[in-house]
């Protein structure tokens, strides 16, 4: 079930990996480009305003890291001009992007998602409404583009315990204050794993 925090003026929510899978597939029913957009936000941590930047020319395999990385020009959380950073891409997303580019006949400079930021936010809202209708669960209506990024950040920071410095680098946060809100409460699964490990000692 979608996790919610409505204690403040803005309701925050988090999707689990399985919920994210469902969200992506549902978006894809209205166009493959929509599914790619959801993956870029929910699996790679892009802001909605960054989704229309990358193209094949920005994606590369890092021999040193044994990972896929792609360049994004995004928000500078310290203010000023947009900042270029390298973003990590899971292998299954890279496979999807390569297949998408190939089947769409994109050249290296063609953007994967050629859409405005308002359009991308609208796609998220429309997908959320569809899933809410399909499941009868109104919690889905709270899902926004920022919540997809939030889900990505919290999953890696809290569930996978990726170090904060790495997350700041690939997520485009300039300081700890900017990333601190994403250090949300762990899921019940994570609490169980952590406490089970404690009992082994």
TrEMBL record:
GO annotation terms (biological process): DNA integration; DNA recombination
CDD domains linked to this entry: DNA_BRE_C
Tyr recombinase domain residues: 10-196
Keywords: DNA recombination
Molecular function as annotated in GO: DNA binding
Source domain of life: Archaea
Pfam families, sorted: Phage_integrase
UniProt xrefs under InterPro entries: DNA_brk_join_enz, Integrase-like_cat_sf, Integrase_catalytic
Name of protein: Site-specific integrase
Organism: Natronomonas salsuginis
């Amino acid at each position: 079930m979608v996790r919610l925090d409505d204690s403040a003026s803005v309701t925050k929510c988090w999707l689990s990996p399985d919920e994210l899978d469902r969200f992506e597939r549902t978006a894809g029913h209205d166009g493959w480009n929509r599914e790619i957009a959801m993956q870029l936000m929910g699996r790679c941590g892009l802001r909605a305003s960054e989704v229309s930047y990358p193209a094949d020319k920005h994606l590369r395999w890092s021999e040193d890291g044994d990972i896929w990385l792609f360049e994004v020009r995004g928000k500078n959380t310290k203010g000023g001009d947009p900042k270029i950073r390298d973003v990590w891409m899971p292998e299954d997303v890279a496979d999807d992007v390569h297949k998408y580019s190939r089947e769409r006949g994109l050249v290296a400079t063609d953007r994967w998602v050629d859409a405005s930021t308002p359009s991308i936010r609208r796609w998220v809202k429309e997908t959320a409404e569809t899933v809410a209708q399909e499941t009868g669960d109104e919690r889905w209506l709270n899902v926004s583009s920022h919540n997809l990024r939030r889900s990505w950040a919290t999953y890696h920071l809290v569930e996978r315990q990726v170090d904060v410095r790495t997350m700041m680098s690939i997520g485009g946060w300039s300081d700890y204050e900017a990333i601190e809100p994403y250090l949300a409460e762990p899921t019940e699964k994570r609490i169980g794993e952590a406490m089970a490990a404690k009992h082994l000692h």
